[in-house]
Amino acid sequence: MIKEHDRVVLKTGVPGQHLRAGDVGTVVHVYKKGEAFEVEFLTLQGETVAVATLESSQVRSVQKREITHARLLRA
């Protein structure tokens, strides 16, 4: 079960927020017992890129053997 402060991985992109599948964010709020989540996405320097409300089908938990991958954001 995903809970507040967990890291999650986007399963699908969110074009309006410049987010892509595979981006990693932190859950800042859980809605309706996990039906949806408010997720904050940060640069590696700690700058907030987006805060998105996502349905549970759009994210998954981070797995133990995964690593993050950096990509440059276009303005």
Task: Report what the structure shows.
The chain is an all-beta fold. A hairpin with a 4-residue loop joins strand 2 and strand 3. It has strands spanning 7-10, 24-31, 36-42, 48-55, 59-61. The chain has a five-stranded antiparallel β-sheet with strand order 4-3-2-1-5, with no helix packed on it. Helix content is 0%, strand content 40%.
Concise structural overview:
By secondary structure, this protein is an all-beta fold. The protein is 0% helix and 40% strand.
Low-confidence stretches: none
Identify the overall geometry: globular
> What is the spatial order of strands in the main beta sheet?
4-3-2-1-5
Number of E strands: 5
Radius of gyration: 12 Å
Task: Summarize the biggest pleated sheet.
Answer: 5 strands, antiparallel
Structural class: mainly beta
What's the total helix number? 0
End-to-end C-alpha gap: 34 Å
Element order, helices and strands? EEEEE
Counting copies of identical and different chains, the oligomeric state is single chain
How much strand?
35-45%
Question: Which secondary structure elements does this structure contain, and how are they paired or packed?
Answer:
Elements: E1 7-10, E2 24-31, E3 36-42, E4 48-55, E5 59-61
Antiparallel strand pairs: 1-2, 1-5, 2-3, 3-4
List descriptors.
single chain; 75 residues; mainly beta; five-stranded antiparallel sheet; 0% helix; globular
